[in-house]
Amino acid sequence: MLGSVATRERRGFWGTASFLLVIGIGASLYFAQAARGSATDEAARLARLTAQTQLAPLLTDSDLQAPITGERYDELAAAIERDITTAGPVEQVTIWSSVARNLYDVDPALVGARSSYLQQLTFEVANGEPRTDVVDGMLRTFVPLWLQPGGTVVVAEMDQAFGPIAAQANAPWYRLALGLAIGLAIALSIYALTFLSSTRGASRETAYVPSRPSERPRDLNPPDGSSPAYTQAGFRQLEEARQTAEARAAAAEENYRGLQADFKTMLENLKILETNLASYESSATKAEREVETLRAQVRDSAERIGTLEDDGNAMRERLKLRERELGTAQAQLDEAEAKAKQAERELERTLIELQTLESRFHMSKLSEALRDLDEVIVPDADGATAGPPPRVIYTVSSEDEDVLPAAGKAR
Prior knowledge:
single chain; alpha+beta
């Protein structure tokens, strides 16, 4: 039966079948990847739905404002385990603030910590749309949550194992690819046999057929070439053609064995490629995470530099303001000193004027006393003088002696 399908006339058919099987294997691998992407999107959608319908009702306004600790942490952890992680498919829940501060984690020691590499991600999710990525074999879905419109927004991280999701999506297509690979091996084997059958047909056409079947043919190719058959016309050419056909048949068998070995190598390479593909995807995901971490660190450094520059500018402005205030205070001090000197001069003038007025006052009093004295000692009309005037005692200071007339001093 194998000989009937491995004829030279069917060589084109098996070659075409092999080519189509190769295309089928490639298409199966492509659809396996597409199915894995669809399964990932569906798992992310279910995680978002779980966060919005099951996790959000468990939270309070105070849970969104500060890290959850103490009795409230134990209560929330028990509720999450009962309603979410036990029911599946979400295995772990983490709650972040919009600035990547850990509000709730399965590990209480991590509550309150701040993640620098997630800062940009949580900020974008809190102000935009959910995000999904695969890190270390875990499918992470980041979902924004709020309890009332315009209120505080937090980010819920819903983690689930990615291996079962990918395996369930890839399994049918990988089985199909394996079946097509087995079919490709069979097709290539039969394709190689078509070359072997053609060489065997040629050898049968050139083989020697004895005239009498009952007689056993003698050796037609003795070592010394002295057989009478060699004297027949064209026998030597037929013998050489037979030997050539046998050599071609041996070469075809060798090629068939080589094709089998190549096919086995191809299957091993397919397995290695599949393993490498998974490794490359993991490495690419890890590299993307590292790049995202570096970007977050660069943004954090840029923000810190900007903050320092703003603080420096503010310090410069405050220093300029203090310098202006100091200049104003110095001007006011100079003006106060000038006013003080002017007041001192005015005080000196006032004291001098006061002393002058005091001297004039004493002089006027002394003059009046002298006039009164002169009026007392003046004789009356009959030439008699009045009695002695009342004794008046004047006390004149030493300062007034300089202004009294020489003849008008009284004791």
